[in-house]
Design brief:
Oligomer: single chain
Strand content: under 5%
Shape: extended
Distance between the termini: 28 Å
Structural class: mainly alpha
Largest sheet: none
Radius of gyration: 15 Å
Number of strands: 0
Number of domains: 2
Low-confidence stretches: none
Mean pLDDT: 91
Order of helices and strands: HHHH
Number of helices: 4
């Protein structure tokens, strides 16, 4: 999973952006009492299409199902 990203970004830069991404997610969760986005989902009012790849190694299918169930009018 990591090798294609290393080819694009290089190992050192990939390490940096991965660390920065993780730090950002942790700050958001801390600020929102460990809620990354659940409360925000009910605020989405525009048409939304939820797409999930069958072979996505990072995001489980349950995430797409949860989004579909909690964003009004999503498909």
């Amino acid at each position: 999973m990591k090798q294609p990203l290393i080819k694009v970004y290089g190992e050192e830069y990939l390490r940096k952006i991965s660390f920065d991404w993780l730090e950002s997610i942790l700050r958001i969760c801390e600020k929102q009492n460990d809620d990354l986005c659940k409360e925000s989902l009910k605020k989405i009012k525009c048409p939304s299409l939820i797409i999930q790849g069958n072979k996505d190694p990072m995001v489980l299918i349950e995430h797409a199902s949860y989004l579909k169930d909690h964003i009004v009018g999503s498909k």
